[in-house]
Design a protein that fits this description.
InterPro entries: ABC_transptr_periplasmic_BD. It comes from Streptomyces lydicus. By secondary structure, the chain is of the alpha/beta class. It contains ten helices and 13 strands. Strands 8, 9, 10, 11, 12 and 13 form a six-stranded mixed β-sheet that branches. Strands 5-4-3-6-7 form a five-stranded parallel β-sheet, sandwiched between helices. The longest helix has 19 residues.
Length: 293
């Protein structure tokens, strides 16, 4: 009789995650699930964060077939028994601080981890976009899957195209933001987001908000945002962000909308070569259009 081979993975909380054999039934935080899907892994269930609701956020879901994969809930509404009822061999999540399992209440995470291995990938400020991508690739590889052949070549081409698009000076002013509503907006601090840092490394002129208390965001009124005079706005498309049509009562938002090109931005996008290729290509094409290059 053939013996099963134990499985292990060193996760980004510094823990060696082990199982008696390679996991097959995987439950994942929705962003992680979308990333695994891009590597050919189909989760049996997904869950959201405290910012999500009773249905999955399609922005975070990437190309996941949401009609076919069970959504287990989010935040305080996600009970450990619900997650365990999916009978996972492994739970995959992300961590921002290298300690907490993002998307699970601490008590829930402890109870789940008492029954099922939990692996995390760090996606916070301490990681480059390439490092996040490679960590997910390493996890997928340990599970026996990987991205399609040619994905690396396509990403290289997209990065080259972005560098060429931003090669001229001065380039467009790019501002990343998450609308809180008609009165307030969260302006992203580029250094806190791996995907924004990657854009800057390829020559994109990202606007830095004024110094303040927020580590990831600077929360201001729309007047302050308009004063930054962006040419391109990377706009949060997650369901917890306000939609453009709900902002138009504010004259400062209307000024931004009239001046700038609005691009969809997902701070919790899939961390795969395929997803990053699409993102870099979109930004490169828009920079060329704005500059007339």
């Amino acid at each position: 009789m053939e013996q099963s081979t134990p499985w292990e993975f060193s996760d980004d909380r510094g823990r060696l995650v082990v199982a008696g054999e390679r996991p097959v039934r995987i439950v994942a935080y929705i962003q992680a699930g979308a990333t695994l899907w891009d590597h050919g892994i189909r989760p049996v269930g997904i869950f959201g964060s405290q910012h999500d609701g009773a249905v999955p956020d399609p922005a975070k879901a990437g190309e996941l077939p949401l009609a076919e994969i069970e959504y287990l809930g989010s935040g305080t509404a996600l009970h450990p028994d619900t997650l365990l009822a999916a009978e996972p061999d492994l739970v995959v999540a992300v961590t921002y601080d290298g300690e907490q399992v993002y998307g699970l209440e601490q008590k829930t995470a402890l109870e789940v981890e008492a029954h099922v291995p939990v692996a995390t990938v760090a996606v916070g400020p301490g990681r480059s976009l390439a490092e996040v991508r490679e960590r997910f690739a390493a996890l997928a590889g340990s599970l026996g899957r990987g991205e399609p052949l040619g994905a690396a070549r396509e990403l290289d081409a997209a990065e080259d195209a972005l560098r060429q698009a931003t090669g001229g000076a001065p380039g467009p002013r790019v501002l990343a933001l998450s609308p809180a509503g008609p009165d307030r907006v969260h302006l992203a601090r580029p250094g806190s987001w791996p995907d924004l840092r990657a854009l800057a490394e390829h020559g994109v002129g990202l606007v830095e908000p004024a110094a303040g208390a927020g580590v990831n965001w600077s929360t201001v009124g729309w007047a302050e945002a308009a004063e930054l005079s962006p040419d391109i706005v990377l706009m949060d498309v997650r369901v917890n962000a306000a939609r453009p049509e709900n902002l138009r009562a504010d004259e400062h938002w209307r000024a931004i909308e009239a001046r700038a090109r609005l691009l969809p931005w997902n701070p919790e996008a899939s961390c795969s070569r395929r997803a990053h290729t699409r993102f870099f290509t979109l930004v490169a094409d828009t920079v060329r259009e704005v500059t007339g290059a």
